[in-house]
Amino acid sequence: MRLGTRASALALAQAQLVAQLLEAEQGAGTVEIVPIVTRGDRESAGVDDAAGALTGDGAQGQPPPGEDKSRWVSELERALAHGEIDVAVHSAKDVPGELGEGLALLAAPPRAAAEDVLCGAAGLDELPSGARVGTSSVRRIAQLCAFREDLQPVSMHGNVDTRLRKLAGGEFDAIVLARAGLTRLGREQAVGAVLDAARFIPAPGQGMLALEGRQDDAAMREAAAAIGDAETLSCLLAERALARALGASCDTPLGALARAEGEDGLLLRAWIGVPDGSAWIEDELSGAAEHPEALALALAARLELAGARALLDAAEDIAAAQ
Asked: Which of 46, 300, 27 is nearest to 158 (CA)?
């Protein structure tokens, strides 16, 4: 079994985790990890030094404004379509709303921590007025500004290690990263504070791994399902469907987080704002776990009625002007 992944340290760590799960399954056999350098990795190498760009997660959070998510997965999808790999392992938040022709999300292993974390301070309240907080995510920028308008979010790029070095070097007072990425890289000691996911709703799919394969590959679908988690997959489908329904892009300050509710229910929460944090909408809705897309469509309709479209358009206009 050939398992395709990006060539970053975080992506390789995630792929190794999936490989171990597959190998532990009866009859799964040996899993070969096939690193593939994506367009996103190559572009990151132009921002940071070429070696550093492949030592961490170049797509930490959302891609920089104006850049589409396909740059992190297109080469992997091409390898799947050509039969060069049997399954691709993605950070779920990096997967575009529409997959390549003939491809499908086969499964999602149990979700890791979904929260954002603050590195460099014990909490946002501990930061001085005007503190420089590094992040590449427009969602995080909007949420930081909504929480404290006196903070100064600063765009930053590079892998996890590069960002932590910049923090240690004094370029920032603090930085915001995904908790799951630090955990998978064994860098939990860098966490200063975990941001409350009820207030700082994370990106759709954050903390999840998505296993993508060919629609007609029944054997791979069965193997992936054996290590998948039904609850995680239902949450992922709901979060992705909400992003699609709202027409969210990499320039959209959108947070979406689903969780199980009761035995057969699902609670989906969403946050939409503008980059300067001056206006935002948040809402939540419960539904059946077996119909995650229907729940997402219903929540999207409520958000639209509350004025989400005006916020989304304003966010796109701001991104286009930058």
From this structure: 46
83 and 224 both lie in a single domain:
yes
Q: Which pLDDT score is estimated for 234?
A: 97
Q: Are 156 and 166 in contact (CB under 8 A)?
A: yes
Residues in the chain: 322
Q: Is there a domain that residue 46 lies in?
A: no
Is residue 139 within 8 Å of 199, Cβ to Cβ?
no
The per-type count for the chain, helices as H runs and strands as E runs, is 10, 13
Which helix (H) or strand (E) is 241 found in, with range? helix 230-245
Residue 55's pLDDT is 38
Is 321 buried (19+), middle (13-18) or exposed (0-12) by CB count in 10 A? exposed
State residue 74 phi and psi, 5-degree precision: -60, -40
Distance CA 19, CA 50 (A): 27
Q: Is residue 48 in some structural domain?
A: no
Tokens of 251: 């320039």
Tens digits of residue pLDDT in 255-313: 999 999 998 999 999 999 999 999 999 999 999 999 999 999 999 999 999 999 999 88
What is the Cα gyration radius of the chain?
A: 19
**Is there a single domain that holds both residue 87 and residue 129?**
no
**CA–CA separation, 222 and 205 (whole Å):** 22
| Calpha distance 71→168 (Å, rounded) | 29
Task: Determine the pLDDT at residue 39.
Answer: 76
Nearest one of 190, 182, 177, 172 to 133, comparing CA atoms: 172
Give the per-residue pLDDT at 252: 87
φ, ψ (nearest 5 deg) of residue 161: -60, -40
Are both 224 and 188 inside the same structural domain? no
Number of domains in the chain: 3
Kindly give the parts of the chain with pLDDT less than 50: 47-67
Q: Which two tokens stand for residue 96?
A: 């575009």
The model carries a pTM of: 0.89
What are 151's two structure tokens? 């903070």
